[in-house]
Amino acid sequence: MSADRREWPLYEVFVRGKRGLNHVHVGSLHAADDAMAVRHARDVYTRRNEGVSIWVVRADAITASSPDEKDPMFAPSGDKVYRHPTFYDIPDNVPHM
Amino acid sequence: MNDEYAGDSSQWAFGTGFEDPLAGVDTTVPPGVDPAELAAYCLMLGDDALVMAQRLSEWCSRAPDLEEDIALANMALDLLGQARLLLSRAAAADPGVVPALPEGSPVPAEDALAFFRDAERFRNVRLAEVENGDFAHVVVRLLLFSVARLALLERLRASPDQVLAAVAAKGVKEITYHRDWAGRWFLTLAQGTEESRRRLEAALDALWPYQAELVAPHTGFGVDPATLRDEVDVVLDQVLAVSGVERPDRPPLSGTGRDGAHTAALASLLAEMQVVARAHPSGRW
Amino acid sequence: MTTTPAEPEALEAAFEATIARHDRIEPRDWMPDAYRRTLVRQMAQHAHSEIIGMQPEGAWIGRAPSLRRKAILLAKVQDEAGHGLYLYSACETLGVSRAELTELLLTGRQKYSSIFNYPTLSYADVGTIGWLVDGAAICNQVPLCRTSYGPYGRAMIRICKEESFHQRQGYELLMTMMRGTDAQRAMVQESVNRFWWPALMMFGPPDADSPNSARSMAWGIKRNSNDELRQKFVDMTVPQAEALGVTLPDPDLRWNEERGHHDFGEPDWEELAAVIRGDGPCNAQRMAHRRAAHEDGAWVREAASAFAAKAGAR
Ligand SMILES: [Fe+2]
Ligand SMILES: [Fe+2]
């Protein structure tokens, strides 16, 4: 693709909702460097006071297990973590209609 | 209407008390404080915040990236919140500052002050009102503004007026972030590319003459901004040194927005900001 | 890797079984190419709509008639930027970058919701958009929280939580204006008249003319048909309009006891087709605005990348 070759790298964001809880994956964003990623995470993912602490990590620094080792189509892509893995918690208050 | 999603209201942008920013707050003016002086001081700081928020919000949907769009809106929202509290404080301290509206108008005092005063009655610094430029311009404007405002709010946390002290305490946290955002972008643009450095220096040059107004003397109630001059200079010099940018050699502009002597930019800013409110002086929103 | 290649049929069967159990497909699972393509198209179009959707309301932030309304509107439009961001991120789990998607939007190869090609002419439009447009969006989006693709569903959950604030603030603005002056009441009615039909069109063409719908439903990407959702929206909105004291501009709108639903008139599908083609009142303006923001920001994005590279090298 001819699009912006200088696109800022993708970061995964983890937020600790309150003291005593784990950091939970909440989503991702783009930033030029780690410091900017933390600021962006604060602005994007804690606009409504959802967190007391933030972790950010470059998506390409994550190593993930293959979902199914018998699956050859995706065995080679174990390092492509822009296909982010799934640490999301689904909130309890989402109704199943 | 989807009540099931409301859940815990603390996660929403607006909690209780959003209608009247000073709901439930004791607004009695402390003994020994002149109400008119207190009101004048709050108007000055409130107008700074309001006019800055208006300029910052013009960036909405125009930022270089979605993440920065959200960041700029956050800062505008912080300043808008400060403006509401400070204008309400001014009105509560001295109702005489609030413009008269038609009999029975439901417009609250903060809005009467924001939407029904003409430019010459605004007390903001001119740095806040000049027209937006490129991204370097908003970075420099925010840097100059937040360095001075943070120094001031830090002192005002000990204000004899409890309302102002509380507003300052909240504001310190917000402006600390704004200063950090602007400082980091200043450094980034200074050392990024040739173009970013050129644009940054141009913005700094254009805005520098407005800087002195932020630390001009003020007599009467409140912390005198002039007493913060050295502190502000030290911080600015640090940012400039780290970024490898020269302090511009440009004299301060004469006159001051604090006396109502504004640039033409304020009148056009207000013409837009006030147009709907003024068309409906008895309207409810 | 030493694993033996699985048969394509086995992979497909595993995929179908996951869908049949109403379980979620996750980014690293095998999926049919057409499923991936459909998802990227739908999520990207949705993301673009959030971003372009900032403009019609964003135009009124500067003119909001009270400081409270200014804060609410700015926070709302800011949320839409966040929604776009969440959805672009969901697309990125399928290996398509935000930069590529932006390029597709700016070159007109991907679309956004036609509703955002209508102009906003008064402050009442801020209320009407919140009530009807965000309301219609919620009807579309709540079922998508259960969509078969995990990252899409999770983005939708976050979005739906925020959307309910959007709809409420809009409805509350209209209610407040209806308690105001005659001029304000007239403004509300005029605005509702303009947005009612475009809002109905947000659910897309009638099921009979929606060729991709059936497959999307079979895959659990879509959970309800266009016509079902449109009906649901009408049924939900009619009592809200009554409570508000406005009329909806449809002479055929009435309760049908037998069906247990409201009957309503046919939207002008020609108009929808024209707006999608690019002949809506504001298509050119919306794209120009987006393009200018993107191009004006290029030097900033480059500077930050260059700075990060230099800092990394030190
Ligand atoms: Fe949205
Ligand atoms: Fe929305």
From TrEMBL, chain A:
Keywords (A to Z) from UniProt: Oxidoreductase
Gene3D superfamilies: Phenylacetic acid degradation B (3.10.20.520)
GO molecular function: phenylacetyl-CoA 1,2-epoxidase activity
Keyword Oxidoreductase applies: yes
EC number of this enzyme: 1.14.13.149
Enzyme class label: oxidoreductase
Protein name: 1,2-phenylacetyl-CoA epoxidase subunit B
Organism of provenance: Nonomuraea montanisoli
Encoding gene (name): paaB
From TrEMBL, chain B:
GO cellular component assignments: cytosol
Domain of life from the UniProt record: Bacteria
One BP term from GO: phenylacetate catabolic process
SUPFAM superfamilies, alphabetized: Ferritin-like (SSF47240)
Protein name as annotated: Phenylacetate-CoA oxygenase subunit PaaC
Gene: paaC
Source organism (scientific name): Nonomuraea rhodomycinica
Pfam families the record matches: PaaA_PaaC (PF05138)
Automatic annotation (TrEMBL), chain C:
EC assignment: 1.14.13.149
An example molecular function term from Gene Ontology annotations: phenylacetyl-CoA 1,2-epoxidase activity
GO biological processes: phenylacetate catabolic process
Gene Ontology annotations for the cellular component aspect, listed alphabetically: cytosol
Enzyme class: oxidoreductase
Record's keyword terms, sorted: Oxidoreductase
Domain of life: Bacteria
Name listed for the protein in its UniProt record: 1,2-phenylacetyl-CoA epoxidase subunit A
